[in-house]
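Section 3.1: Structural characterization of target chains.
Under the original work plan, the team committed to producing a structural model for every single-chain target entering the pipeline before any wet-lab resources were allocated. The record below documents one such target. The sequence was received from the expression subgroup and is listed exactly as submitted; it comprises 90 residues.
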Amino acid sequence: MDGKSDSFDIAKEIDLRDKNESEVYNILDSTIKNIQKGRYVLAYVNEYDKITKIAQKLPALGAYIENVLKKNERDFLIMIKNDVKQTENA
């Protein structure tokens, strides 16, 4: 995010709260495969540890977490970008 724009190309919102790891991966896999590159998926989770597990799975799907927003003590919103993360040169 470059800070120049407040709009995002959101393709889909998914609710991953109270889903097991297998269900989460299947939902992410089918969602990411069916949206255009460069677009976002908003995913709702209610376990902080689940964010790390999702982050580890996303590169295999060609996506990455761009931002995590904390809604309250138990709810988080993850912005997932359907794109390969560009590495920054030092």
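Helices lie at 21-33, 48-61.
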